[in-house]
Amino acid sequence: NRDNLYEIYGDRAFYLLKILFAIADGDTEKGEVNAVIYYSDWYDDAVKNWNNLDPNLYDGTPNDVADQLDDFIEDRMENLVTTNWTGQERIPPYLLIVGGDEILPFYRMSSYSETRYASDIDLTVISEGYFFSDSAYADISGDDYMKGEPEVSHGRIVGASVIDMESLILKGLVGPQGNNVVIASGNGRDGTANYFIDGIFTAFKEADIKINGREADSVTVENDSMIKSSEWNCQDFIDALNRKGTQYVVHGNHSTNLSFMSGTSSCSTDYLDSAFRGKNLYETYLVAMGGCHAGALYDKENPSRRSSLAYQFIQSGACAYFGSGGLTIGNEICFNGCLSEEMFNSFFENMTHDGYGSVSGEAYKKALRGYVPMGGYEMKYIEGQWDQQWIEWSSEDTNAVMLFNLFGIPWMNLNFPSEEQAGLKRFSDIKKGCCVRESGLKKREDQEIAGADLRSGGTFSKSFTFVTTDYNVMQEDSFDIVEIPGADLGTPRFGPVLPYFTATIDLPESASVVSLELTGGSTQSLGRLNIPSYDPDSGGFTEITGLTGLIPRPNYRYDVRSDHSHLMARIFFYPIQYDADTGESVLWTEATVEVQYQVEECIFISAFLTDRDYVTTEPVTVTATVRNVGDRDVSGLTAVFAVTDSSENFLRSVEQDIGIISAGGSREVTMSVENGLDRGWYTAGMGIRDGSGSVISGAWELIGIISDHITGMTIPGIETSFDIGSEMSFEVTYENHNPYPLEGLMTIRIYDSRGTSREIFADIAEIPASSSEKISISGNTRGLEPGRYEARALFVQQGKADRISDRISFIIRQKGDLNCDFATGLADALIALRLAASEDAPLRFCLSDADGDGRIGLADAVFILQKIVVPE
Question: What is 603-706's CATH topology?
Answer without folding.
Answer: Immunoglobulin-like (2.60.40)
